[in-house]
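Hi D.,

Good news: the full-assembly prediction came through. Inputs first.
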Amino acid sequence: MADLRTEFVGIKSPNPFWLASAPPTDKAYNVVRAYKEGWGGVVWKTLGEDGPPVVNVSGPRYGAMHAGDRRLVGLNNIELITDRPLEINLQEIKQVKRDWPDRALVVSLMVPCVEESWKAILKRVEETEADGVELNFGCPHGMSERGMGSAVGQVPEYIEMVARWCKTHTRMPVIVKLTPNITDIRYPARAAKAGGADAVSLINTVSSIIGVDIDTFAPLPTIDGKGSHGGYCGPAVKPIALNMTAEIARDRETRGLPISGIGGVTTWRDAVEFMALGAGTVQVCTAAMTYGFRIVKDMIEGLSQYMDERGFRSVEEIVGRAVPNVTDWQYLNLNYVAKAKIDQDLCIECGRCHIACEDTSHQAITSMKDGKRHFEVIDEECVGCNLCVSVCPVEDCITMVPQTAGVDPRTGLANDRPYANWTTHPNNPMARPAAEVVAEPAE
Amino acid sequence: MSTISAPDIASGRLAPEDYRANFGDIHPPLDRHQALVESDRCYFCYDAPCVAACPTSIDIPLFIRQIRTENPKGAAETILSQNILGGMCARVCPTETLCEEACVREAAEGKPVKIGLLQRFATDVLMETGEQPFVRAPSTGRRVAVVGAGPAGLAAAHRLAMHGHDVVIYDARPKPGGLNEYGIAAYKAPDGFAGAEVDFILSIGGITVENGKALGRDIALSELRGAYDAVFLGMGLAGVNALGLDGEELPGAEDAVDYIGRLRQTDDLAALPVGRRIVVIGGGMTAVDVAVQSRRLGAEEVTIVYRRDRAAMGASAYEQELAATDGVVIRHNAQPLRLVTEGGRVTGVVFERTRSEAGALAATGETFTLPADMVFKAIGQKLVPAAFEEPGAALTLKGGKIAVDEERRTTLSGVWAGGDCAATGEDLTVAAVADGRIAAESIHRALSAA
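Then the structure:
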């Protein structure tokens, strides 16, 4: 069993698997169940200002995107921040932290953009002895209409301002949770750092309409005939989250800023990917809401096995390991050649590779050979695009084989040409000489 | 008490609920959820092998996708546009040797997509609506005679009606449907499905059915050729092969086809007498059908005896397995030598063991006797050429069946043929439907050109 202990902005947890601020962390009952199953930490569902509690709809709050066999790949919600009284939440947080001192307990907060409001709530959270706070600048629905959530997260100046207030008024670590509903994630991340935030967490949910009822012509989920956009999460948003995580990890201004990775983490593999791109912990919601808290057992066990097999002694060794390999397109090696290869023993002859290539790409896969059904790559046409690999239903049946010797029959060029990228390519009117090795990503 | 026991043939061997269970649907249909889960397994293959394996070339990936997108009626139309008897074929096709054997999931994991059950799901949804999805073209005023209201004839008639021709179907039996109504095992198409499907097919309009009219008895081919613009022959195989043994006409020996026909038509299975010990001679689907149904009527010992080895049996591996599951014993490599008769009844069969020598069957001289209350003959059916042999009207035969070309044209101008009576593919419902459709399109082309 590998050592999965994590220390993130000074917050210790027995493993990097935290539950994100969301319905699963709305009250002590759920959080205690999660801790019992092994979750390393939780971010308590967002608390708002003291006063009359928030009111949720009493109709459907969720809508789902399903893949085959109704596998839930995307979930959208229109639930607001906690609708329980502040005092009860604070009491429970205090009790839970006392009962589970080894687990991370971070409290998510969302109050109006007024310094006194933040100052007031921070003081009350501090009294619970929670490990830290996460500023919810992400929720794209409901609260944003009231000038909170993503309405703040979409304005870097506000992020910086509120982060600074929080750092001024509390000794607790401050994590800023970012919304993906912006053009370039680096700007809000830089703002958080400039405001003194200890870390960022991302992504919050993506603005979405999950579907339309084509009988009633109302958006889903439908509340009395109407629908409103919600926040989208789950496995389908993972690629968006990975990219944004990497963008922050490799940005010159935010490099080294701790990141808590969020967005479709369902398995230990997903977690490793987020960590490799710079996340020190991961936060999970949809997977738990789909399968229950016990999925964390597979996450813990899988990560442990992986680390043992790879010889990693700490989670820290994984964090950021893939970041140096993320670059801009212009620095990709244009002399690298790979060709698809179909393993005829594994091929079940569905023909999807052929029709995908034939109809939509490069006409580089046969459907017949000597009058018989046969699928084989035509190297003279194959550009190495990987579409056939993507559509093949059999694991490892089609692989991309790097061509390291000889000549590419498609281009007539040698396969062993040295690294050369677009910046120096003769077709590039902006080509600058002597930029063979460019370690720094462009602005 | 006599030392020679009287033949033990009796009705009502089982409790009423046993008959219902034994003759209910052998493959319960998929419900909506099951159909959606199963449809998800289809890879939507390019130039799909399942389509190539289907004698009627149904666009299987397309109809499965239509089920998946919750458009089962669209799926049914895709099926029925190629095979108007898609509902029955979904029940009786030996899918394990056709589409499902070719399914790439069979290659990948030994578990093909359940194409037959999905086809049934879609066609059931459509048929429950009572809608006829095909529209008849304006009447052409051309008339076509179809002989035989079985799968080939019905498929031909529907397609011809679609093209606006007027069709009259002549059938020897009291009800249309052919083997679907009289031949296939009851548990494969319970609840009057064959009749419902005939009604569905005829609902397109423009088709008249004349029951109780047999070719060669009530109508002559020359008359039809004179009275109609085209003739399609799809009357199946009316003759039953005989054992050629003394006593086979005595009580106790029965044609399996006749017995199954009675079983299919009875209103009360409990009233149908069945022996306690049954011997079935033959190795095809009919042999299995009569053996299994005898067991399900309450026979205690049912033995199929086939003269060649297992590999040569006409019954599919699935059918053999079904028989075994139902407690039917299958004995290979034994041929009937003589019938044992007592008191004017057949009471057993003496078999001689055989072996295959260089492809030929050799008798070994070794014999054994199986006592039987009933002996079923199921050694194949044959064409009765006398029904259409007339002076000057020469239909060429091939291997005992009517010779046809690719378009199912016979050697006689204006006469097409298909189904079991024609020398085409295997004697399967689905092959007969393909013949009927292909012939109808050929007839339509011929009539349109004329």
